[in-house]
Amino acid sequence: MTTPEKKKSTAEEPWPVRVVSQMISAWIARLGWVWVEGQVAQISRRPGTSTVFLTLRDPSAEISLTVTTNRDVLDLGAPELKEGARVVAHAKPDFFAGRGTFSLRADEIRQVGLGELLARLEQLKKLLAAEGLFDRARKRPLPFLPGTVGLVTGRASAAERDVLDNARRRWPAVRFRILNTAVQGPAAVPQIIEALKVLDADPAVEVIILARGGGGVEDLLPFSDEALCRAIFACRTPVISAIGHETDVPLIDFVADVRASTPTDAAKRVVPDLAEERRLIATARGRLERAMRHHLAREQQRLDAARSRPVLANPTAMLDQRAADVDALRHRAHRTLGYRLERADDDLRHTVARLRALSPAATLQRGYAIVQAADGAVVRAPADVSTGDALRVRLAEGELAAKVVAT
Questions:
Q1: 241: which strand partners?
Q2: Per-residue pLDDT at 402 exceeds 90
Q3: Is it true that 17-112 and 120-272 share their CATH fold?
Q4: Could you say which of 67, 205, 230, 318 would form a disulfide bridge with 54 (CB–CB 3.0 to 4.6 Å)?
Q5: 54/108 Cα distance (integer angstroms)
Q6: What is the mean pLDDT of the chain?
Q7: Using one digit for the tens of pLDDT, what is the confidence trace for 79-112?
Q8: What's the pTM value of the predicted model, to 2 decimals?
Q9: What is the pLDDT at residue 407?
Q10: CATH number belonging to the domain at 120-272, selected among 3.40.50.261, 3.30.70.240, 3.40.50.720, 3.30.1300.10
Q11: Which residue has the higher pLDDT, 387 or 207?
Q12: How far, CA to CA in Å, does 337 sit from each of 287, 329, 340?
């Protein structure tokens, strides 16, 4: 007979359910014994039977497995086991072919103590720090006045009231988008991660607050979960961690952009104080007014000093001086020109007088005459002419024609 491992199933030759169930059981059995860690979500002890059923949940995801064990095994390793506790179990996967169900069969269960939890958290802290999740350089500043504040907290919790009341008391117009989730127990981490994704995808939300009141170390364990730390690191929106009291320091405090000591402190950090801002504005306005008054007074002094100068006190003084200078120069030029004209006139008269005194006409006026030959030569001696020569006699008032009769 051909075994299913050597012959593939077809529509004409399908495998029976029992064969498929046997194959699944064989494949699961190959995993062998493993150590598994998780958080106890449910414990079921059935009366009259020695079998105990546990629901083991992953703290960081919506995944759970059923674990079966003997009552003696549970009493030996974790006699006071309660829901919400962390355990480590040595178990082997089993597939029950009759019911088609899968579970883990444990032969040893250990409850994780507080000291061991803290040691694991310290180891996780070093790992995340080495990867740069705590780097201060990547932390983003908070917006001065966010349009909408995202709030992830427990339903109707004191932390929610503290954040809302204090924020609205500081800035009455602040808007919140609130997502209520579990803040402890197995369901806390998956719900908080999902709420972070929703708020981070909302463009109206400019800052996110994770808030929870105080509690024991076990109660605050979800806020030290690795998956939650990485989800906060991946957020594009600034995140404020407000978990517990001042002494509570879960790992998300190191990853968040801002760590608030309490939910009330987160409310003070996320929005400004309206009264304080008004006081600052009034102070700034007073300083600005004083500065402007001082500046105006200083400029007024400069204007007064400029106006007191002669050039501005009597703007026409310079023009009057220049006009007086022009008049003086004009009178001086007039006098100088007149003086020069008078001297030139005197010089001309004297020259004319001298010219007249030296002119032959003046001599002719005294009764003298000028005798000229026919060719115009002046006759100075009788020898210059001959008898019968025509002469020309020039007098003061005209000329005479003459003829030499005798020399």
A1: 210, 259
A2: no
A3: no
A4: 67
A5: 13
A6: 86
A7: 778 777 788 888 889 888 777 888 888 888 887 7
A8: 0.56
A9: 76
A10: 3.40.50.261
A11: 207
A12: 72, 12, 5
User: What tokens were used for 365?
Assistant: 């006026």
Q: How far apart are CA 204 and CA 199, in angstroms?
A: 9
In the numeric block, the tokens 């999740």 are attached to 133
Residue type, 284: A
Q: Under 8 Å CB-to-CB from 373, ≥6 apart: which residues?
A: 379, 384, 385, 389, 391, 392
3-state secondary structure of 392: strand
205 half-sphere exposure, CB direction, 13 A CA radius: 25
Closest CA to 111 of 141, 71, 79: 79
User: In this structure, what token pair is assigned to residue 58?
Assistant: 């992953």
Residue 358 corresponds to which tokens in the numbers above?
């030296």
* Residue 164, helix vs strand vs coil: helix
Quote the CA–CA distance of 69 and 54 in Å, as a whole number: 8
Q: Where are the alpha helices (DSSP H) in 30-157?
A: 71-77, 114-130
**How is residue 128 written in tokens?**
């995340």
- Domain residue spans of the chain: 17-112, 120-272, 313-356, 362-403
Q: What percent of the chain has pLDDT over 90?
A: 38
- The CATH code of the domain at 17-112 is 2.40.50.140
Q: Collapse the DSSP code of 38 into the 3-class scheme (helix H, G, I; strand E, B; otherwise coil) and give the result.
A: strand
Closest CA to 367 of 395, 398, 401: 395
Residue 3 has a pLDDT of 45
Strands of the sheet with 398-403, listed across from one edge:
370-372, 390-395, 398-403
